[in-house]
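Chapter review: from sequence to fold.
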Amino acid sequence: SFSSEEELLGHRSSHSVTAATPPASPHRCPTCGKTFKNSSGLARHRHGHAAERPFKCAVCPKTFTQLAGLVGHQ
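The token string follows.
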């Protein structure tokens, strides 16, 4: 017996597949811990932590780590 509906719902969710902890991703950013489904996503993400920002806007002083960021900005 449960003392509240909240406790009952919590108990029910413990039996569902979605309550299980997802498997650890092998593609985890060592800087911030964010995980990715593939290595290319992680590689792209890691450029964001780099100090180098080689893509500069011709109109304003904003710079970007990836060309896609600059293209989206323009």
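Two observations follow directly from the output. Helices lie at 5-13, 39-47, 67-73. Residues 24-73 form a domain with the Double Stranded RNA Binding Domain fold (CATH 3.30.160.60).
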